[in-house]
Design goal:
By secondary structure, the chain is of the alpha+beta class. About 35% of the residues lie in helices and about 15% in strands. It has helices at about 1-20, 35-45, 50-65, 130-140, 145-160, 165-170, 175-180, 180-185, 205-215, 220, 225-235, 240-245, 275-285, 295-315, 325-330, 335-340, 460-475, 480-485, 505-515; strands at about 30, 75-80, 85-90, 160, 200, 250-255, 255-260, 265, 365-375, 380-385, 445, 450-455, 490, 495-500, 520, 530-535, 540-545, 550-555. The protein is globular, with a radius of gyration of 23 Å. The relative contact order is 0.17. Bound molecules: glycine (GLY).
């Protein structure tokens, strides 16, 4: 009997061991800037894990890609801890200062003041990135915070050659940054846009990073740096207080989990809208066998799934600490079946025929995303931002830190368009210490074949990009294919399908137009970073979006 029990237990153990995927045995990083990718690989070579690499890459991006993200911004870090198989979502999204009000961007007549939520310190929410990086280092890293921040400090202190993307950003933002002397001095050292290849040094930012390396989040949220930021913000018409900074905390959330024909999808919960919209679209698509449809029919159904999912985003979503989100209903397969039943096989559904809402999410065009895997199977997908290019443009003197303009992700006034010509509703109205609704969608995919780690910037288009990338992975794509496939996007309003060159064939364009779609070709968009690991072949692939200058490394 005893022998049988031992045999049985051994058998069980062997079955479990066979079912568990092996360790990948490779470190991999994909990010939007070559020096940041290097920083991640470097800390892993020094004994760090994927979480150390996430801190190193995020901090390096604050130096080499400050128009997209930085210490003055915030975002989301989705982690998978291989030790216990747990997924954790670190919400380091900014929150509104305590003195913020729902009407703070309106004049006395109740009109929205153009640009007020986009420029200068009044547009800046309280940053969350530093708190997130310190949290990840303390709870998940193997190296010290100083080790994780060392590559970023070196890049800031010694400088790095200006790349073509940074140069283009400086050209496009010259007028905005000229208003703020500290930023102007750092980025336009001779009073003009420096040429490509110019060695850009940021000594104040290096000092700020060193302070954080020494004191952890107290180095940023309290003491000298906090005082400098608050004083400068208030002098220039902003409303931050020392207490806003002192009281900022990351929120640790459970990621949203869904399923599509056997593929597990792990993604961003509110205060991002990303996971809900992604999973709702997948729930709608789950009722079809897309592999048996023509390309035209498949694209029609995917566009309709985007339309319905984005409509609900607009209506229901905001910071869950302030708004009751009907999550169970939105993610129920029965709800998706009801929506699917109204999709016609041969016709576009006019958005005006869906129940009207007053809101469409704002769109941002500068944000960054990273994907990381380590040899033990720890993973990170993170998307973070200062919102628009160089955020508010405002840099408190002596800090080297560009502050975000994330307040524009709130709704300045229900029904009144924001900086992108878009409108919103009360669920996303401004309130003290509320987090503005985001579209950032860092995501893991798990199938019997293996796993994928992906994310991208791109404002409201982030979610449709992740949807298309995930479908590509489901259909057998590797990292290169996931980041390269041509993209198309529909977000309910405007009732237009935007598409990149090559996303539709000539016949598909004719077919979609016949169905009633309005199509508009756009410039290529997005900057996706992806990693895949195939359990069977052991192959790890990593890729950075060919539309931009990022790099991916596997070692
Ligand atoms: N700032 C853009 C977003 O969070 O979606």
């Amino acid at each position: 009997m005893k022998r049988f029990a031992v045999f049985f237990l051994t058998l069980l153990f062997n079955i479990a061991a066979a079912a568990a995927p092996p360790k990948p045995g490779y470190d991999a990083v994909a990010s939007a800037q070559p020096f940041a990718t290097r920083a991640g690989m470097q800390v892993m070579a020094e004994g760090g894990n994927a979480f150390d690499a996430a801190v190193a890459v995020s901090a390096a991006l604050a130096v080499v890609e400050p128009y997209s993200s930085g210490l003055g911004g915030g975002g989301f870090w989705l982690l998978h801890d291989a030790k216990n198989g747990r997924d954790v979502f670190v919400d380091g999204r900014e929150y509104a200062p305590a003195a913020a009000t729902a009407t703070m961007y309106q004049d006395q007549q109740g009109n929205v003041i153009p640009g007020a939520s986009l420029n200068g310190p009044l547009s800046a929410a309280i940053p969350g990135e530093v708190a997130a990086l310190v949290y990840i280092n303390q709870h998940y890293g193997r190296l010290s915070l100083a080790q994780d921040l060392a590559p970023a400090i070196k890049l800031a202190r010694n400088g790095f050659p200006l790349d073509r993307m940074f140069h283009a950003m400086l050209v496009s933002r010259e007028a905005k940054l000229k208003q703020w002397p500290a930023a102007w001095k750092v980025f336009y050292p001779d009073g003009q846009v420096p040429p490509e290849g110019y060695r850009l040094k940021q000594p104040d930012l290096a000092n700020s990073l060193e302070l954080i390396a020494k004191r952890g989040d107290a180095g940023f949220y309290q003491g000298k740096l906090a005082k400098e930021m608050v004083e400068a913000v208030r002098t220039q018409g902003g409303i931050w207080s020392l207490e806003d900074l002192r009281d900022y905390r990351v929120v640790i959330r459970k990621p949203l989990v869904g399923e599509y024909h056997g593929m597990k999808i792990i993604s961003a919960p509110p205060s991002s809208s990303g996971g809900i919209v992604l999973l709702e679209a997948f729930n709608i698509l789950s009722g079809y066998d897309l592999s048996h449809d023509s390309d035209l029919m498949r694209k029609h159904l995917i566009i309709e799934a985007m339309r319905y999912a984005y409509r609900d985003r607009a209506d229901y979503l905001g910071d869950p600490a302030f708004v009751k989100i009907p999550l169970a209903r939105l993610l129920s397969p029965y709800y998706a079946a009801g929506l699917r039943a109204t999709i016609l096989p041969d016709r576009a559904t006019p958005s005006r025929d869906l129940a009207p809402v007053t809101a469409v999410p704002p769109e941002s065009n500068h944000t960054t995303s990273i994907s990381i895997l380590d040899k033990d199977g720890n993973r990170v997908a993170a998307t973070f931002t200062v919102n628009f290019r160089f955020g508010s443009g405002f840099m408190p003197p002596h800090t080297g830190v560009i502050l975000n303009d994330e307040m524009d992700d709130f709704v300045s006034k229900p029904g009144v368009p924001n900086g992108f010509g878009l409108v919103g509703n009360a669920a996303n109205a401004i309130a003290p210490h509320k987090r503005p609704l985001s579209s950032m969608t860092p995501t893991f995919l798990e199938t019997p074949r293996g796993l994928a780690i992906l994310g991208t910037p791109g404002g409201s288009r982030i979610i449709s990009m992740v949807l298309l990338g995930a479908l590509d992975y489901f259909n057998g794509g590797d990292a290169k294919s996931i980041v390269s496939i041509p993209r198309y996007h529909m977000q309910y309003l405007p009732d237009v399908v935007f598409y990149e060159p090559g996303a539709f064939t000539k016949d598909e364009i004719t077919g979609l137009e016949k169905m009633g779609y309005t199509l508009r070709q756009t410039r290529p968009y997005g900057n996706m970073q992806a990693i895949t690991w195939n359990y069977k072949t052991g192959k790890v692939t990593a890729a950075s979006d060919p539309r931009d200058i990022g790099t991916a490394e596997v070692k």
